[in-house]
Amino acid sequence: MANMALNKVPMPEQDPKVRARNFKEVTLGYTEEMAIEEAKRCLNCKNKPCVTGCPVSVRIPEFIAKVAEGDFEGAYEIITSTNALPAVCGRVCPQENQCEGKCVRGIKGEPVAIGRLERFVADYMMDKAAAAVKPEPNGHKVAVVGAGPSGLTCAGDLAKLGYQVTIFEAFHTAGGVLMYGIPEFRLPKAIVQKEITKLKNLGVEIMQDMVIGKVLSVDEIMDMGYEAVFIGSGAGLPRFMGIEGESLIGVCSANEYLTRINLMKGYLDDYATPVIKSKSVAVVGGGNVAMDAARSALRMGAEHVYIIYRRSEAEMPARKEEVHHAKEEGVEFLNLNNPVRILADENGRVCAMECIKMELGEPDESGRRSPVPVEGSNYNLDVDTVIMSIGTSPNPLIRTTTHGLDANKRGCLIVNEDMLTTKEGVYAGGDAVTGAATVILAMGAGKTAAKSIDEYIKSK
Amino acid sequence: MFKIVHKRVLNPAVVLMDIEAPFIAKKAKAGQFIIFRIDEKGERVPLTIAGYDREKGTITIIFQIVGATTEQLATLNEGDALLDVAGPLGIPTHIDESAKNVCVIGGGVGCAIAYPQAKELFERGLEVDVITGFRSKDIVILEDEFKKTSSNLIVCTDDGSYGKKGFVTDALKELIDAGNKYDAVIAIGPVPMMKFVCAVTKPYGIKTIVSLNPIMIDGTGMCGGCRVTVGGQIKYACVDGPDFDGHEVDFDELMKRNSTYREQEHECRMLKSAEKA
Questions:
Q1: Which CATH superfamily groups domain A16-125?
Q2: Which listed residue, of A72, A286, A407, B112, carries a Cα 20 to 30 Å from B179's Cα?
Q3: Can you give the pTM of this predicted structure?
Q4: Model confidence pLDDT, tens digit, residues B78-109
Q5: What is the predicted ipTM?
């Protein structure tokens, strides 16, 4: 008998006042009972609209049916047959625009909590799942550049097919944005590392500190006997607004702020990397990265944290849950506001940001109503730190050092529907192709590329 | 892990190390840098490559003890290893094929970076005048090395305790006024020194290349922490540099930005010395 409750079984979470001052995970996950109760809300629709919303085609109703039966191991097998990083996706996917956005239960009431169930299954099995058996090697070598979501997914899928896969990672730690960008309180790093260990158990080799384009070129990698290369180098190059005062002390990109805190663990006393100490912080932007930076600033001890976003909340690209959590924790939202310039004290440190109020005008090319400044509405916001979170562009290191690899004018690598670039044997996916997007879209691209690489090598 | 195969103390505050890093040694060129991390809890620190041996697979770093991390690095010995070394990062120094005469200027530990530049250009057959500057005699480094790789070496000390008394800028001005024609000047050292060298060369219209040392985390163009204003535009020292046309660089802004974490660096050193005590 289906559970016809209109709302999702709530997920326990830390009290907002408490969690706003610590880096522990915000949401605590379902218990077995909660998971089974929520799983029973699934109607097991014949046409499975949820699956069409999933970039890696997780067989959602099937795994949920197993959860409802209490067969969590069976559920895990179904999920991991198409998704290499379920504990990550269950936490950071924008489910409201994907699987849950298509759920029939969402028409009247809340959709089934697919993300929470995926997370539950992955967490439940995290230490229970038997170590994957290393597949029989097929004698072919493939290289992957970048150990982020697309690279890890591509590597995992190829390893399962018997390929000998080497991932070249520029940083000292594998995981890409999962390690340097998304904070501990939203995606615990131990979980990311456990998922990566599973890939290593499949035989994937990861070489850290290898900045491809500098230490080795893509052509040199091919000369080393790799028959194909997948490029998943991400979109790391931060943008600034080009306004006055952006080089002052106390202005940084969200990438810098988050990298210091997450990758370098600057929030822990015994790690050497310094993090700027702020009383009052303005985060410019309305995406997930902006929410991460704002919520991190609170946890670093800031008294006031503002989100400065030039459109209204309806246009905000961040996940709804992140906006909701940020508000609960005390982040102050100044929507329909835009920075004009940043002001300094006599020592060159930020002391205020001049903002202007905005209103929504006609829809622009993105389909969203474009923000227009309200003449004469300028005012100064007292802040000592400004974090720019207005997007990133693809990293140029590989594109500028690889002959025959074409990019568009925004610096994104050009690929066909098989994720093949303009260079034979070289595939690409994730943010390096799309510009800044989501973890799950990058994973979907890694998956498609793995399939194409397999077909390419087999047909040679 | 990246093993330290050779260590030499150049002066009480400056240490040279040869480190096993075969991939980097194969590719490194003068002007490029590495990012290292000593251990799991360490910070990522950029250091310009002072030399390399492609056959042995080693790179040379020369560093000054200025903060907690370099203090810790200096305690390591031959046989110890660094957890991470990534590189070679940045764009190699570019001197036009047509250049015949250059002047290479090193200030303090900046000589460590000036040295491979002088060596490469001297081996290319250029006339290389070298000016090095130090506070006093007891911290002069790399004199023998520079002698072998320059047409003319002038060592200056601020207090006159060794070589010529005065700043590198005085020596440079004298050389220029004596009729030496330089196709380029390469200046590497403390930011104020590079700023003043540029002030000397500008009226003569001599192309002046400086190597910048801003705060940096990843070194691959990802954090934007190393942004500097060059010719009125934002440039990332890690991917667009670290070399820039010195006449275009906003040195005052760079000096300010480099002081961002000064208080915390101080606290960090205090903490480390407290741990030791």
A1: Alpha-helical ferredoxin (1.10.1060.10)
A2: B112
A3: 0.92
A4: 999 999 999 999 999 988 889 999 999 999 99
A5: 0.89
